[in-house]
Prior knowledge:
The protein has one domain. With 109 residues, the chain is α+β, with helices and mostly antiparallel strands. It has three helices and three strands. Helix content is 36%, strand content 18%. The mean pLDDT is 93. 12% of the residues are buried.
Amino acid sequence: MINRCAIIVRPAKPYLEWAAALDDSGIVPDPDQEPSVYLIPEIDDEDDAWILIESAYDTIFEAELWSWHTDESAFPKNRTFAMFRRWFTITISSCIHDLCEGPLLDDEI
């Protein structure tokens, strides 16, 4: 087990409606396929996780918008934490097991 928790982010109805309104293809993200996973420091309880999520929600929100559409002018304005909670279904997991033998690498470094 590693010393991290995971935030699992799936698009909810408002996100799906936003994605559908971008074009008339009818293609939208599938909330049950390939959710995004963000690692956060270990936490003692769920309340602590929500404090961390609230401090990082705008970064997560923007990454989720970028994952579907890269034109920032189409992004919703004045994004708030309440809006984030409506646009995404969040699951918190404190049990992260690393089954790989190699080291964890961060491609941002």
